[in-house]
Structure formats: C-alpha cells, structure tokens
Design goal:
single chain; mainly alpha; 6 helices; elongated
Length: 148
C-alpha cells in the first residue's frame, strides 16, 4: 500500500462506500425494530432481505480496514481512536449475538406485531449509537495520525 500511488485511496474509498451501504441497511433494520419505518413489513422479511447485504458489507469493510491498518500498523495502533473503534466493534458484535440469542430467537412470535418487544428496541438503539461512535472514531483516526 505504501509503494502505490493509487492503492490507499482506492482501498479507503471502497472502505467508506461499503461503510455507507452497511450503515444505511443497518439503520434501516434498526428503525424497523424501533417501529419507526417499514411497519407493515414483517421483521423476518426485513431481516432476510437485509442480512446478506449487511454481512457482505461488513466482510468488505473488514478486509479494506485491515488493508488500511497494515499500511502503517504502528502509527494506527498508537492512536486511542483505533483502540476505541475496535472495542466498539466487539460491542456491536456482542449486541448482535445477544439479540439473536434472546428476542431475535422468538421473532416469529412478534413478527407482525405493530409493537416491537423492548429487547429489540434496546438492541436497535445500542446498535445505532455504537455505529455512530464507530464511524466517528474511524474518522478521528485520520486526525490523530501525524502527517505523512
């Protein structure tokens, strides 16, 4: 990455575009769980349609993020913001696991309900807050690094 004129800007652009796609779908899903939008759509249908895009987007973000990190691991690792971002990514993953093991496991019971269970709403709010903070931490990494 360091030796190429185009590798870093291309990888970073793919990272940001994929983040945009992922975040858009994640917020859409979270808003459905909060009962704010797509109220007439079954939660299971929304999950089914968005999950493949969420997983694909997340996979591309991990690959491109790792490539960006590998370009200068010592500088990146020295920033508070990278460490905070990694902690929040783990927390976001745990939020998904907890949702799927609890209220998400019983989605068939409340799928068509106009009122989403409290646990799903809490998971949605936690998700939105964490992803906003992850994006902010990611942007802050660039400002914390010394200029090239």
């Amino acid at each position: 990455m360091r030796e190429s004129t185009w590798a870093e800007p291309i990888v970073e652009t793919v990272h940001v575009l994929t983040l945009t796609m992922f975040l858009g779908f994640a917020v859409l899903l979270d808003l459905r769980l909060l009962g704010i939008c797509l109220k007439r759509r079954r939660v299971s249908d929304v999950l089914g349609q968005l999950n493949r895009w969420l997983f694909a987007g997340f996979a591309v973000m991990v690959v491109t993020g790792t490539l960006l990190f590998c370009a200068d691991p010592v500088s990146f690792y020295s920033t508070f913001f990278l460490k905070a971002k990694m902690v929040m990514l783990v927390l976001a993953g745990l939020n998904i696991v907890v949702f799927n093991l609890t209220v998400g496991r019983k989605v068939a019971e409340w799928d068509l309900d106009s009122r989403t269970p409290r646990g799903a709403k809490v998971a949605s709010i936690v998700s939105i807050v964490l992803w906003v903070l992850i994006v902010a931490a990611g942007r802050a990494i660039a400002y914390a690094l010394p200029p090239p």
